[in-house]
Amino acid sequence: MTVTIVVAIGRNGVIGRDGDLPWPPTGDLAQFKALTMGHPMVMGRTTYESIGRPLPGRTSIVLTRDPQWAADGVEVADGLPSALAQAEKLDDDVFLIGGSQVYAAAIEAGVVDRMVVTHVHLAPDGDAWFPEVDWSQWRETDRQPYDGYDIATYDRVAP
């Protein structure tokens, strides 16, 4: 199973504000859709609620500590290990799409194989940040420049 983080990060590490993106849409949503289509996506409840619905053509697995929480068309998990186990039953490629707690837990657990990062050329105010990463453990394997952002792919370096 390959676990990939997909995230848009401002120059200052900000990834969100008030449950939404802290910048206007960048155009990377087409790439996000192409990348994740047909694969399971793991996300926190707040991220799911900011999207507001299951995204077509993908299985949404939502992490929540609330055992009563449910939403039509999504699977629920009580932690990252159970979410990844559910996802692995569906496909070999799993995408973690937010938020900051999910990213931090996955990076800390060492389960992330790849990161696809939209580097937004802004430094907005926010209330959610991407966790600290030891970039010596990652190798940039691709970068595509766009107007106002770059999309870079990083693969974990074998220990």
From TrEMBL:
InterPro entries tied to this protein: DHFR, DHFR-like_dom_sf, DHFR_CS, DHFR_dom
EC number: 1.5.1.3
Source species, domain of life: Bacteria
Principal EC category: oxidoreductase
Gene Ontology BP annotations: dihydrofolate metabolic process; folic acid metabolic process; one-carbon metabolic process; tetrahydrofolate biosynthetic process
Signal peptide as annotated in the record: none
Keywords attached to this entry: NADP, One-carbon metabolism, Oxidoreductase
Pathway: Cofactor biosynthesis; tetrahydrofolate biosynthesis; 5,6,7,8-tetrahydrofolate from 7,8-dihydrofolate: step 1/1
GO cellular component term, pick one: cytosol
Record-level Gene Ontology MF annotations: dihydrofolate reductase activity; NADP binding
Catalytic activity: (6S)-5,6,7,8-tetrahydrofolate + NADP(+) = 7,8-dihydrofolate + NADPH + H(+)
Entry's family note: Belongs to the dihydrofolate reductase family.
Function: Key enzyme in folate metabolism. Catalyzes an essential reaction for de novo glycine and purine synthesis, and for DNA precursor synthesis.
Name of the protein in question: Dihydrofolate reductase
Species the sequence originates in: Aeromicrobium chenweiae
Organism classification: Bacteria, Bacillati, Actinomycetota, Actinomycetes, Propionibacteriales
